[in-house]
Fold:
Amino acid sequence: MAESTAPANDLAGAARLLDYWAIGYRRTWKGTAISSFVNPLFYVLAMGVLLGDYISGDPGQLEGATSYLAFIAPGLLAGQAMQTSFGETTYPVMGMIKWQRVYYAMTASPLSVRSVILGHLGFVMFRVGLTCGVFVLVMAPFGVFETVWGAVLAFLVQFLVGLAFATPIYAFSAGLKDESPFALVFRLGMIPLFLFSGAFFPIDNLDRWMQVLAQATPLWHGVDLTRMLTLDTVDGSAALVHVAYLVVLAALGWLWAVHRLSRRLMS
Structure:
């Protein structure tokens, strides 16, 4: 009888979905084992260790990093948070609306649209924490973290990075009629962001207009903040700007997501 009553608030409603997401992940986790547990090791070894042997570790050219591995590892970590959010808020959202129509069943109960979104985003944050946690554990033995607190904070920042991508992409996905735009989202959105937001090389190497464009992207803010914490070169004012940017983007994405999904489920 208690389950048929309306939850006290949106967060309580999202908590009712915990069993759904836990059972779903328990049944499907093997399909994400490679991307979650193996890819981080391959990324660090291939890009940081093997390729890093061919690049001189000049702190003056690598934003304070004494090796290419120390420079690239924070960028790969932030990139992992971004990629996980992209993966979990595109096709899965479309599936919940168009193919399995699970969202319709959820909102036919006393759950609100906000509770449904919170539940899904909570699962996305679980996936971000899992994949980035493995990444941090892989990075740690290579000595890229200057301090323990830097490693902990760098990991926690990935939740903010992931959320800054998850909410607007979720909103975009929620309003689509079919999945065809996702190909462009990955090819013209995620991949260029990963390549040109300072993860693999300092953006000072880009033309001025491209530097400005890179600095306007959420991944650059995530990469720079993660690198500051990893290398223990934190600039307080710059860090606050990064955090504020990511928080505002996540908040605007949330409002857009609620609006888009509400309209989609009523159509």
Notes: Residues 10-265 form one domain.
